[in-house]
Write a structure and sequence with these properties.
Structural class of chain A: alpha/beta
Oligomer: heterodimer
CATH topology of chain A: Rossmann fold
Helix content of chain A: 25-40%
CATH superfamily of chain B: ABC transporter involved in vitamin B12 uptake, BtuC
Number of strands of chain B: 0
Number of helices of chain A: 10
CATH architecture of chain A: 3-Layer(aba) Sandwich
Largest interface: A-B, 34 and 25 residues
Chain lengths: ~270, ~290
Amino acid sequence: MMWKSWLLRPEVHEAGAPILEVSHLSVRYNGRAALEDVSFRLDAGERLAVVGPNGAGKSTLFKVIAGVLPPTAGEVQIAGRCPGGHICIAYVPQRTQVDWSFPVTVAAAVMMGRYGRVGLLRRPTRQDWDYVRACLEVVGMASLAGRQIGELSGGQQQRMFIARALAQEAELMLMDEPLTGLDVPAQEDIFRVLETLRARGVTVMVATHDLQLAAERFDRVMLLRQRLVGLGLPDEVFTRENLQQAYGGQLHLIQAENGLLALGDTCCTGESA
Amino acid sequence: MSAVWLLLTEPLQYAFMQRGLVAVVLVGVVCAVVGSFVVLRGMAFLGDALAHAILPGVAIGYLVNGGERGALFWWGLGAAVVTALGIGAIGKRTEVKADTAIGIIFAGMFALGIALISSVRSYAVDLSHFLFGDVLGVSVHDLWLTGMVGGSVLLVILALYKEFTVLSFDPVLAVTLRLPSTLLHYLLLVLIALAIVVSLQTVGVALMVAMLVTPAATAFLLTRRLSRMIALAALIGALSGVIGLYFSYYVSVASGAAIVLVCTLFFVLALLFAPQRGLVWRKKAVRAA
């Protein structure tokens, strides 16, 4: 069973090279800076939360890493090479940016992730459909394979996109606000899937507004506001100074018994840029 | 029974009706299939603009060939492709918003076409043929051309079905899968242009957008699978053409308008009665709840 071994152990690119290396990355839209001199690296299997206010450049960062948006300056390397040739990077879009009335079933939507491997002018084979089924099982949605995508709940929609990223055999998944708008049980479902991804060595970057989830559930956190404000363990990054620098007046910090308590910035649907 | 049979067969004794029926079926199918992607990608306005923008091409061809119609296809096609690529480039490379760019090019080209045609003496008749079609004037040669070009359009869509689907559903995914997105986008524009040009004589530029959009939108309301939506759209497009043509034969209204009216009727019926999505259905569901 070829596809099973693929699923369990994603292929390795260049030995020694980090899965992601971003150096001096800047992006400008019409002269306005969306990202300014951002540099960092990620190791395979890491789980990183990207936190920052609306318009901090989180989506822009993801799109440049995915090779969808060209950087104005600096470069991105995926396993030692530029992102343009890789099909192992999955961008999981915000749920609000998807047309849920599109006439497609869950299985067919997940199959789209495999199209890069199926190849031009070819049809998906029996093995491809088996693979899609296995991906849906990983996210606990095998029973929903035949549903139209508009019939899914928010959490299911999100897990379907993770299944699609699995079908793509992605080694680096960029998830744009996957937790926003989900209730706690649905968020827990996502975290369970993220645990499975970690076991498979898949590197995950998650944009989120939830500082507490970022601090509790991720290996490292990144604080972004056009520039990289901080990157590291939550305790080192979420300091009063850094948060003030990232959020300015949008966030109120209260000294609690066991650290800082952050209030505000609870919003977040429809963020762009 | 025999009366109905007579009603259906009587027009068929005329060769122009036979040719007209073949033409509307071909055009109905090709436009509906291409139109399914137009609807899903929200490009209805672009389709309308493209149809109108071929007018100057057709007009030049008409003037150059001294009123002879044989070469109009190629002139129309040239204008459509140039416009499609022009709109694509303006939307991508400048700060002008896409729909504004479409509006400007669309109206400008259309005006140019009318200006050119109005320089000819038989202006009113000729213009109305281009605007509203002349399906009963279709020649056997026209049918062959429509069949071959339309068939090629269908073949390309069949071959690149999954690529066009990804591009319509999630353009960002298409890029991360490293599909040739830009090329596919322009190819789709060219396919739309081809569908429009082969339909020119059947419905004319003014009502073209209905052939692209209405059957596809109707099918969209009736199914939740893309492949079924496309097949259903093709069926509705062809059926509308045939019913519309019979209607125009017996009631003697303009054939292009009759065809579009039948399409619209199908759409309204689907809008009201489509299972689960129709307005009547929803009202019932509300009452039950």
